[in-house]
């Protein structure tokens, strides 16, 4: 597949929490019928909640902010999945998938581990459980995991390792505040992650426990497309794909995105395509030695957050670079 002079396999990077922004995907929904059709599949499977979600998502002034987990989580899943389906229905076959947080569930659905109806049930159950979690937040610290760890207060955990010097922490409001104060005094800078839920922390242990019975009842199959796990940083095994405990633990365990991305990049020259809103994952991928040397290329399907009316044009330009007709 020639892209900008590079020939190599296609890897899809599927973003999760913090990639959301107001209006994301709404232009595609209005202007790209194939995208709207897949989104409507997801909304239909959600039942009445899907009707409400779609209506609020498309509203000029949404009732629920996009950063609320009731909006960000199901919409990120749906948009990631719909964009992946567009590529695959257009004839592109990814060689590997890597999702960040909720993005891994979208990747698992594209890989055939879960059917779409089962994946939607998992998303809805998880989101419903977030109301039981104490208020908290997340922050991205410009430091390594080893540098951050000594400053963590009780109730604050490592939520993600996104890059060698980008570590996300998560916890309840007050312990997170005191941890961030300690990090500031130690000379580290940080930025808040848009989330009112402390994803990937022990505070979400009840969410994981509650998901166990549901996941045990759903069929899960070996991946039909290789998937690099954002939680083990290795290729997902058939046993892990079938293990309800693996999927139930996602809200608690840290996302090891950089180690997983390093594993993926080690497979040789390829094209890393961000299959979801924004450019967060391709921005991280640009730090890879393989990208800096020009042996691996990156492409974001939608580019930076923009006016929704421009989304169809951005997607068409990306499709052209991928050698496929505009969706």
From TrEMBL:
GO MF annotation list: fatty acid synthase activity
- Give UniProt keywords alphabetically: Phosphopantetheine, Phosphoprotein, Transferase
The keyword Phosphoprotein belongs to this UniProt entry's keyword annotation: yes
Recorded superkingdom: Bacteria
Give all residue intervals belonging to the Malonyl-CoA:ACP transacylase (MAT) domain. Answer: 13-306
Which SMART domains does this UniProt record tie to the protein? PKS_AT
Cellular component terms per the entry's GO annotation: cytoplasm; plasma membrane
The answer to whether keyword Phosphoprotein applies is: yes
- Which Gene3D superfamilies does the UniProt record give? 3.30.70.3290, Malonyl-CoA ACP transacylase, ACP-binding, Malonyl-Coenzyme A Acyl Carrier Protein, domain 2
GO terms classed as biological process: DIM/DIP cell wall layer assembly; fatty acid biosynthetic process
Among PANTHER family, the record links this protein to: FATTY ACID SYNTHASE, SI:DKEY-61P9.11
Name of the protein in question: Acyl transferase domain protein
Q: Which species is the source of this protein?
A: Salinispora tropica (strain ATCC BAA-916 / DSM 44818 / JCM 13857 / NBRC 105044 / CNB-440)
């Amino acid at each position: 597949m020639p892209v900008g002079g590079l020939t190599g396999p296609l890897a899809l990077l599927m973003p999760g929490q913090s990639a959301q922004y107001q209006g994301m995907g709404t232009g595609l929904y209005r202007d790209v019928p194939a995208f709207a059709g897949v989104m409507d599949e997801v909304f239909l499977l959600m039942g009445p909640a899907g009707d409400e979600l779609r209506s609020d998502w498309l509203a000029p002034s949404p009732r629920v902010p996009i950063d609320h987990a009731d909006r960000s989580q199901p919409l990120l899943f749906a948009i990631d999945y719909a964009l992946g389906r567009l590529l695959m229905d257009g004839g592109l076959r990814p060689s590997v998938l890597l999702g960040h947080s909720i993005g891994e569930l979208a990747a698992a659905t594209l890989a055939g581990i879960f059917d779409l109806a089962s994946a939607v049930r998992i998303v809805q159950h998880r989101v419903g459980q977030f109301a039981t979690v104490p208020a908290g937040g997340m922050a991205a610290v410009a430091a390594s995991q080893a540098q951050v760890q000594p400053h963590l207060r009780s109730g604050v955990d490592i939520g993600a390792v996104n890059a060698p010097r980008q570590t996300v922490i998560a916890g309840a409001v007050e312990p997170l505040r005191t941890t961030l104060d300690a990090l500031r005094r130690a000379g580290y800078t940080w930025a808040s992650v848009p989330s009112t839920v402390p994803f990937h922390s022990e505070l979400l242990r009840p969410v994981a426990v509650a998901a166990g019975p549901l996941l045990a009842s759903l069929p899960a199959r070996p991946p039909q497309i290789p998937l690099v796990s954002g939680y083990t940083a290795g290729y997902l095994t058939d046993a892990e794909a079938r293990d309800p405990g693996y999927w139930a633990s996602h809200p608690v365990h840290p996302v090891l995105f950089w180690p997983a991305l390093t594993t993926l990049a080690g497979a040789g020259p390829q094209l890393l395509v961000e299959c979801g809103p924004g450019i967060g994952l391709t921005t991280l991928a640009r730090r890879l030695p393989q990208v800096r040397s020009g042996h691996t290329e990156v492409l974001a399907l939608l580019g930076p957050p923009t006016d929704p009316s421009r989304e169809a044009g951005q997607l068409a330009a990306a499709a052209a670079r991928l050698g496929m007709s505009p969706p």
